[in-house]
Structures are given as C-alpha cells and as structure tokens.
TrEMBL record:
SUPFAM superfamilies: P-loop containing nucleoside triphosphate hydrolases
Domain of life: Bacteria
Chain's gene name: yqeH
Record InterPro entries: G_CP_dom, GTP-bd, GTP-bd_ribosome_bgen_YqeH, Mito_lipid_metab_GTPase, NOA1/YqeH-like_C, P-loop_NTPase
CDD domains attached to this UniProt entry: YqeH
The protein's name in its UniProt record: Ribosome biogenesis GTPase YqeH
Organism for this UniProt entry: Enterococcus dongliensis
Amino acid sequence: MEEELFCIGCGAKIQTEQPDKLGYTPQSALEKGLANGEVYCQRCFRLRHYNEIQDVSLTDDDFLRLLNELGKADALIVNVVDIFDFNGSLIPGLHRFVGDNPVLLVGNKVDLLPKSLKRGRLTQWMRERAHEEGLRPVDILLTSARKSHEMSELLEKIEEYRDGRDVYVVGVTNVGKSTLINQIIKQTAGVQDLITTSQFPGTTLDKIEIPLDDGHYLFDTPGIIHRHQMAHYLGKKDLKIIAPHKEIKPKVYQLNAGQTLFLGGLARFDFIQGDRASFVAYVSNDIEPHRTKLEKADAFYEKHVGGLLQPPRPDEVADFPELVRFEFSIKEKTDIVFAGLGWVTITKPAVVAGWAPKGVDVLTRKALV
Ligand code: GDP
C-alpha cells in the first residue's frame, strides 16, 4: 500500500488525481516536495507563495459539518452573494445554521448592473429577499471585488460588526469569494508571513485562516456548490460567454402574444397571452436574443441550436441538456429569472413560459429594476 501523505500546511490527505478536491498537488510538485521534505497541497502552496486563494470543492457531508460549525462559533458571518445571480447564490437554510451570530450580507459583482439602478434601491431589494429567506442581515454592502470597489468600506464594516470576534466568510461557488478574499489580503497584509494556514496533521482542511491583529481569525470557507446554477451545465468557454464581463445593457423588446425570445440557445422566453407590452432582457451583452413565432419556436430551436442560437457551441449540442418549460401567470411587474444567465422583466399582466436547460431553475421574483 502507498504511504499516505498529508499537507504540512493544512493536514489534508495529499492526492494527485482531482485538481478541484482537497489535498490536490500535481505529481511533479509532489516529487519536488518529497525531495525537500516539505509536501504542501497546491492550495496551501499557492497561498504561501502567492497569497492566492484557490477554490476546492467539498462533499455534502463536509459542508454540513462546516455549516454546523457556524452556529457553534461566536463570530461574524460574512455571506457573499453574486448580485447578478442573487437567487443562485443564496445558501439554503443559512439562517438556521448561523445561530445567533450576526450576518453581514455582501452583494458582489455590482459592476455588472446598470448604473441607472439606484444603489439604495438595490440594498432595499436585497434586504426584502433576505427576509423572505429568513435571514436578517445586520447590514448590506455592495462590492466589486474585481474592480476593488468598496473594499475599505467592507473592511471597516467587518471590523465594526465582528466586535472582537472571529469572522467566517461563506458563499456558494462563483460569487467571487476568492477574488474578494484576495483583495482583503492585499489590503491588510503587506507582509507575506501574515498569512498562515492551520496545522492539524491528519484532519481535513475545510477552511483557510487569515489571522487578524487581535489573535482572532478570518476564516475563508470553500465555496458551497449550488446545483441549480447554470454554471454546472456549461463548458468553460460557454461560461465565459454567459457570465457578463461589463455593465449589462438592458435590451428592450416590444412583443405580441404568440412571440418567443431565444437567449442564444441557453434559454427561451414565450409570451403566451396578454396585451402587447415591453419586455426587458438583462443578459450578458455577448448573448444575442432572437425573436420568432411561438408556434415555430420548437422547430426553430431544433434547427438552429449550436448555430444561430449559441451558446452551446456546435460540438457541445449533443451533450447539452434539453430545455425544460416553466409556465407563469404574471400579475404585476416581475422578473423571470434564469439562474445564472440573467432575467427578463415583464411589465404588464401576462401568461409566459421560461425554458432553461434541465436542472437549471427558472423562477419569478419581484422586479429588481
Ligand atoms: P468563488 O468561486 O466565489 O471563489 O469565485 P471567484 O473569485 O473564483 O470568481 C468567480 C468569477 O467571478 C471569476 O470569473 C471572477 O473573475 C468573477 N468575479 C469575481 N468578482 C467579481 C466582481 O466583482 N465583478 C465581476 N464582474 N466579476 C467578478
């Protein structure tokens, strides 16, 4: 039997097969490490040498353990969400796990939303949605980790609300948590040695500890995987296309009942019944919507998916999940949300259907804009 090795940084069992799992280290690095007598997993190696945080995924049991830890700790919980994919970035039941600990809600990627959208309105909207989920954040902050916006405000709020306690940063994958943590490290740590990783040989690493100046820690926990995010159904290239890079330019369509709007080949919106009205699509500027007649839409999709309707790309069509239909009867101004892709705002009462790849949620919410 092969000898079991553990990372000297975090104690995770070293493995060379699965890059996105705990304890991964490339074979070549492992050999080097063995030669120097210092075996680190890639994640700890990068953290030590580049001050960089890497994503790893955990099993459901590990997550449950982690979430349970939140309630037992006396700490400030910083919950990072992607404001562009708000529903896809909520952690189901988080309020039950946090116990009495205060939660600071951070809406990241605010750079993607139209500037015309008032920030006060946005935080109010987030507060209402959080309350619907049973979460009562002590405060809400909008950030752009990528553009390094509001980072000092974030640090000030963390300092204020942690009130001498530890901090746990939690979020589902892809909300920009690593980018945000890396920004925090940059802002706070001039010295590389300030960042250390815990040493409990034989245990599994499930978080990274960033020491704070009063002997407490900021814990970065691994991103929690949300299975209904669109991201899990797409190739890396398509993900790049659907994830907006810049401020979204809303696209307005005047539609009659009996018309369909395709969002590339990723999603479909049917206007089934109602008076002629405007519909506003908020998706990456790189996704081209196509309008067609509802009665011809099935055939149109069959014929053009992977071609005129991209993504998916031609070689991905075979593996791309079929679109599943959700019908809604709309009474007031509402967003039909395609988890992770964007949304369509409906301005008047209507019967509509939203289609998304099997496994991806389509839901309605009070209009954001
Ligand atoms: P994590 O899985 O939550 O750790 O997310 P990452 O930090 O790996 O980021 C996921 C993706 O979102 C990457 O493509 C980032 O470049 C992007 N991202 C992170 N923060 C921002 C932000 O503030 N604005 C925008 N537009 N993109 C961001």
